[in-house]
Amino acid sequence: MNSALTENQRLLALREQHVPRGIATAHPVVAARAQGAELWDVDGKRYLDFVGGIGVLNVGHNHPKVVEAVRRQVGEISHASFQVVAYENYIQVAARLNKLVGGDAHYKSVLFTSGAEAVENAVKIARGYTHRTAVISFRGGFHGRTLLGVTLTGMSQPYKQNFGPFPAEIYHATYPNAYRGVSSDDALAELDELFATDVAPDRVAAIIIEPVQGDGGFLAAPREFLQALRARCTQHGIVLILDEIQAGFGRTGTMFGFQHADIQPDLVTVAKSLAGGMPLSGVIGRAEIMDAPTPGGLGGTYGGNAVACAAALAVLDLFEEQDLLAQGETLATQLHDGLLALQKRYPRIGDVRGLGFMQAIEMVADDAAHSPDAALAQKVIDEARQAGLLVIKCGVHRNVVRFLAPLVTTPEQVAEALQLLEKALAAAC
Predict the structure, then answer these.
(1) How far apart are CA 229 and CA 247, in angstroms?
(2) Exposure of 158 by Cβ count < 10 A (0-12 exposed, 13-18 middle, 19+ buried)?
(3) What is the pLDDT of residues 60-113, one digit of tens each?
(4) Is the bond preceding 165 in cis, omega lying within 30 degrees of 0?
(5) What is the pTM of this model?
């Protein structure tokens, strides 16, 4: 192999040889270490990491309390499988999640490994409870890469490709998008039309929705839309599932995104920032619904792994001890104001949007329709990386640049990121 290659180039060449192309890597960077909101590659270059493992690191890379909790737990018991013997920290995580989501109501939690697992099991639980089969999700939604996950996902490419046939009895409704002229009333009218023409509500087991679409473009569901959805689900006996996998754990300024709408979901799926980088997910829900599957109907060898549970308890402690929600809101205001200022200078930023520290910019063409411009978004991302800022894209048309910096990012780092982004915009536009 050419000795003149950088360490990044050498390792990426090995990646191409040994790892299939189906697993895309957004940046040609091989990470060596990270801390807080910063990451260094194997050649020593520093980056501001405003991806955070795709919204996983709300408490930042390698938070000392999370690291210590993991080290301690590995020395005690790393894995036993909750299906074989119980262990206390699984039960503690469940109890704390139940309180965070359900308050004083009786909620229960079951833990898994990935977000897709949580979604699949939420659907199983809803079907088991209602004895119905149909599920409604939303165009632009993302719910995982398993066959059921990609069927629920409201985007065709790159997720569905030629992977069918897909599971039956999945229907897609329209999600509100103020920038593209789709109001809550428009979306609700289309949902009612779906009930009238495609699937009667008494056949629907569940409606699953992200309070803020993640991969779909950081679109926040309006308060009135979520409240109307809650009312329709109650009216028709449909289980309302809030997918909080990306929006949860302080990303939107409240612990969970649904709390902005003052509604109570029946089931909530969580993952990503629950365990500070350890693989852990869960379904939290009303006890009578969660108890619908009989013993043996739920599980998974690694679900609720003891080390991941220890990390999750440390993460939940940090939210209580360090007031990360308030810290995130301060940073959100700084970032949002900065992005609006950039929009004034760069009209190819068609929209600045988000909720809390979950912010994005939509890149558009220089035409009357403000057509999505995926190529421009990619150029902004590439130029930002060259400048030292890591961001990734999203949106049905892949023309949205999203920002998922940790809640422990400093104001100075946000200011630096905005400067690097302006440099990227100047080069790309």
Answers:
(1) 18
(2) exposed
(3) 999 999 999 999 999 999 999 999 999 999 999 999 999 999 999 999 999 999
(4) yes
(5) 0.96
